[in-house]
Each structure stands twice: as C-alpha cells, then as structure tokens.
From TrEMBL, chain A:
GO terms for biological process: regulatory ncRNA-mediated heterochromatin formation. It comes from Actinomortierella ambigua. This is Arb2 domain-containing protein. GO terms for cellular component: nucleus. Residues 13-103 form the Arb2 domain.
TrEMBL record, chain B:
InterPro entries: Arb2_dom. It comes from the Eukaryota. It comes from Actinomortierella ambigua. This is Arb2 domain-containing protein. Residues 14-100 form the Arb2 domain.
C-alpha cells in the first residue's frame, strides 16, 4: 500500500519514523499497543485513520490477527484491494464493520461493500459529523458480541443481530449463500473480482 | 505603477478554553453558545481569515476539553512518542497520544 508523505510546513517538525498517518499508526501499534497486557483489543477508526489502521494491521498481520477482537471503521476510506497478505481480506470480513451515513429510513441496514471487503452499517444520519455519535451505540453492541469470543476460530459466526459481520449481504447476489454456507475464507476473496 | 499595499491584520488572539469562546458542550454532545445555539461556520463571513483562525482555535479548545474528559472520567494519561524520549527533551520533534 502507498504511504502518503506529509511535507513539513514552516511550523511543524516531522518526527523521524512517524512521517505519515500510516507510519504513525504502525509505530503506535508496534511500540505501544502490542505491549499492552489486554486480552481484548478493540479498535475504532475514523476516515483516513481506518486506512492507516488496516494498513498497519496488514503489515503486522502475524502480530494482530489473533489479538484483535473487532474493528469499527467510521466513515472509512479503507480498501482491501491491493494487499498481498494471506488471509487479510478474510480477516477483514470477519472482524471489521464500517459505519456510514445513510437516510433515516435505512438506519440499521447492513450492506456488504466488496472494495472495502466488509459489511457496512447504516447509521441513519445524513449529517457527516453526526455519524460518530449515531455509531457509538451499535459499535459497542457489536463489541459486546465479540467480548470473550475465540479470536482464533475460523468457523463462521452464527447470525447475531448486533454483529453486522454476520448479517446481510445485500448486493452480493449469489455470493451471499456461498459466504453463509462456507463461512468466510480466502477462497471467497473478492480481490480478484470486478464489482 | 502604484499598487496598494495590503495591510496585514494582526493575528487574532483567542482564549484557551471553551468558556473563553462562550461555548459549552450540551447534554447531546453538541457545541452550543450561551443561548443554546449550535456553532455554525459561516462560509460567507466577510473576514474569512478571522473566521478560519477562530474555527481552528475553537477546535483546539474542543480537543483540550475532550482530553480533559478522557483524563478525568476515564483515567487516560498523555504519553509522548517517540517512545523513550527523554522527558526533559523539549527540542526533539515529538507528539503525544492518550493511553489508559
């Protein structure tokens, strides 16, 4: 994945090794979060931070694939296309949920987005700034379903109304039954398909 | 040929806290003034430079408020990055994150 370099301005000093959002998140994951003794690690990202987060997880995938309980990405700009990390797209499908603006009538609707590789939950607000507020309750209900769950399990999770990764999957057509019947595994990766 | 010399306005100075701006956070987490009116950035303000400086300063005040709440209500502490930087070093480029 590409890394965007932020050119230094007259007022800002660039910290060596943390020259971009991607490098900043990668640094914090590697040097701070990985040393935490917590058994349960949940991430909430916002906008470009979601890309930086998932990019960092893909770079340190062996470290994080069995440690992260769930990720919530609010108004995310991430994608799973272009990553050549074994198991990463399937991991994203199982553990990441996007939270987006929507019309009030679509509140609670879950839609699978192939480029982003995960389900998206409609928050029912058409105001961008309110997405965070509207997403908090469903995010923590989602996290509650993952609390204490076996993170190493590759079995498909049973459908749960508070876990959007188990719901949906509007827009996939026939792929829906494939995913529900066979679980989420790499053989169903969408990275080579057209949308 | 003569050109009018544009006089640069002095940089406006704002307060540090939300109270200095006359704003507060209401029960629904909205940024409101003393009359309960929600903050709105005026795109058509005649003095755009002032408007933007005011917005940036207000954003910094909101960030300080959030950090204060994280510290007081949830026990978050500031941690400097890069990790291992000498606490007395105020020259090297550095930033901070909030940890609990």
């Amino acid at each position: 994945m590409a890394t965007i370099h932020c050119p230094p301005s007259g007022e800002l000093a660039i910290i060596p090794g943390i020259e971009s959002p991607e490098k900043h998140v990668a640094y914090v994951l590697k040097h701070v979060v990985s040393r935490a003794k917590s058994n349960e690690i949940f991430f909430i990202g916002h906008q470009y931070g979601c890309h930086a987060l998932l990019n960092s997880i893909s770079e340190q995938f062996d470290t994080w694939k069995d440690r992260v309980s769930a990720c919530a990405c609010i108004e995310s700009s991430h994608t799973v296309l272009g990553y050549n990390v074994d198991g990463f797209p399937a991991w994203v499908r199982q553990n990441v949920v996007g939270y987006v603006m929507s019309s009030p009538e679509e509140r609670g609707k879950t839609t699978y987005m192939r480029p982003q590789g995960c389900n998206f939950f409609s928050t029912g607000t058409i105001e961008f700034d309110h997405t965070v507020i509207e997403a908090m309750d469903p995010i923590f209900r989602f996290f509650a379903t993952r609390h204490g769950a076996n993170k190493r399990s590759v079995e498909p999770r049973p459908i749960h109304p508070d876990d959007p990764t188990t719901l949906t999957l509007e827009g996939l057509g026939d792929d829906v039954s494939v995913m529900l019947d066979q679980g989420f595994n790499d053989s169903n990766d969408a990275s080579g398909d057209t949308w | 040929m003569y050109r009018r010399r544009v006089k640069k306005q002095p940089k406006p100075v704002f307060g540090e806290s939300l109270e200095d701006f006359g704003y507060s956070i209401d029960k629904s987490s909205g940024l409101v003034d003393s009359e309960g009116k929600q903050y709105v950035f005026d795109l058509k303000a005649p003095n755009r430079d002032y408007q933007e400086a005011h917005c940036h300063a207000l954003t910094r005040a909101v960030r300080r408020k959030i950090e204060d709440r994280l510290a007081q209500d949830y026990g978050f502490v500031k941690a400097t990055i890069p990790v291992g930087l000498d606490a007395t070093d105020s020259v090297s480029p550095q930033a901070y994150i909030m940890l609990s």
